[in-house]
From TrEMBL:
GO BP terms in the entry: endoplasmic reticulum to Golgi vesicle-mediated transport; retrograde vesicle-mediated transport, Golgi to endoplasmic reticulum
GO cellular component: COPII-coated ER to Golgi transport vesicle; endoplasmic reticulum; endoplasmic reticulum-Golgi intermediate compartment membrane
Subcellular location(s) per record: Endoplasmic reticulum-Golgi intermediate compartment membrane
Transmembrane helix found in the keyword field: yes
Similarity comment: family membership: Belongs to the ERGIC family.
Keyword Amino-acid biosynthesis: no
Stretch forming the signal peptide: none
Name this protein carries in UniProt: Endoplasmic reticulum-Golgi intermediate compartment protein 2
Bilayer-crossing regions: 31-50, 316-338
The species this protein was found in: Papilio xuthus (Asian swallowtail butterfly)
Topology class, membrane: Multi-pass membrane protein
Keywords noted in UniProt: Membrane, Transmembrane, Transmembrane helix
Length: 381
């Protein structure tokens, strides 16, 4: 006898460690009912797994208040405003509690334009105005959609003017980015250019005392810090058109630092709330002040931290396995019941034998075997 001394394959050794009994294939009976339940169970398991994974990835947003201790950092204010006065008659600058030079914050770009918009430009601006107004009013109902789906304020982007009017520009577009200190301040647009002084600045508006001052304006953009999804900037898309001269517009802005920490991204930005006040300036009627547009901003002492809160991954995996196992067991149980009932109703009826037929069926001479007698002597020969 030749004995095989070769080594077993690794796969064979692994098969020997199988602790789960297997049913031989000859004892497995595949039916249409079982196949149907298998397909249905597979789709149910796939749908539940997709739902669980989607729910896990769609994490909850947590808003946490904490003291703001980063008082030395700078922040940017993004400005894009159109005022119904020529640029040569306007001055825009910032004055804050540090008495820093107005030229230390940066400089806005001035662009002569026309305040009256074309029909195409007016339609675009109105669409943005109404949409941002809806977002401000319904924010408490759709804030989760805004934060999770990456929506926010819509920029009032006006298409370029295709035709120029046959008149001189009567408006000024002020746009750019200024760098602010993290303290209370005042950004304003008034008549006359500014002149810096050791303890502040003045505007050379005494030359325009007899000149009509129309401070009708459109705010295309006014935000602090980097833009972030989910944050609504209340003043973007705002428009003030007046018929009275020498109007004073005041916006009291409360700026709130906001740290957004989402998946694979971290943003430091700012959101704000605003209160508005407008009144005509008439010294003869006791309404004193300087006509213009004033944005008085202040920094909140608390900041908001926005982050995602997800379930423990181990709990998620255990819940996923329990869902799959429960559907599999329930499907097998229902399949067993249905198969048992089907077998009981499809049991074949017993066969009744006809004795007369059994007796008569061999009477046909062609089918009944005949006994052939062969002589023994002939066989011996």
């Amino acid at each position: 006898m030749i004995r095989y001394r070769g080594k077993k394959k690794v796969l064979d050794k692994v098969k020997e460690l199988d602790a789960f009994p297997k049913v031989p294939e000859e004892y497995v009976d595949s039916t249409s009912v079982s196949v149907t339940f298998s397909v249905i169970t597979f789709f149910i398991v796939a749908w539940l797994m997709y739902s669980e994974i989607t729910y896990y990835l769609d994490s909850n947003l947590v808003f946490k208040f904490m003291p703001d201790i980063d008082m030395d950092e700078k922040l940017h204010i993004n400005i894009d405003i159109t005022v119904a006065m020529p640029c040569s008659n306007l001055g825009a600058d910032i004055l804050d509690s540090t008495s820093q030079s107005v030229f230390g914050f940066g400089e806005l770009q001035e662009e002569d334009t026309w305040f009256e918009l074309t029909q195409e430009q007016q339609d675009a601006f109105d669409a943005v105005k109404y949409l941002n107004s809806y977002l401000r009013e319904e924010y408490h109902s759709i804030w989760q959609l805004l934060w999770k789906k990456g929506h926010g304020s819509v920029r009032a982007t006006i298409p370029p003017r295709k035709s120029r009017p046959n008149r001189r520009p009567d408006a000024c577009r002020l746009h750019g980015v200024l760098t602010l200190n993290k303290v209370a301040g005042n950004f304003h647009i008034t008549a006359g250019k500014s002149l810096h002084l050791p303890r502040g600045h003045i505007h050379l508006n005494m030359l325009f005392d007899d000149t009509p001052q129309n401070f009708s304006h459109r705010i295309h953009r006014l935000s602090f810090g980097n833009p972030a999804n989910g944050i609504i900037y209340p003043l973007e898309g705002d428009e003030k058109i007046i018929n009275d001269e020498n109007m004073l517009f005041q916006y009291f802005v409360e700026v709130v630092p906001t740290d957004v920490e989402i998946t694979l991204d971290s943003i430091k930005t700012y959101q704000y709330s605003v209160k508005e006040l407008e009144r005509p300036v008439s010294h003869s009627k006791g309404s004193h002040g300087v006509p213009g547009i004033f944005f008085k901003y202040d920094m909140a002492a608390l900041k908001i931290k926005v982050y995602q809160e997800r379930e423990n991954p181990l709990k998620f995996i255990l819940r996923l396995y329990s869902v799959v196992g429960g559907i599999y067991v329930l499907g097998s149980f229902i399949n067993t019941i249905v198969s048992t009932l089907r077998t009981a109703f499809d049991k074949p009826s017993p066969v009744v034998r006809n004795e007369n037929f059994e007796k008569k069926k061999y009477k046909n001479p062609l089918l009944v075997p005949t006994d052939l007698e062969v002589p023994v002597d002939l066989i011996k020969q």
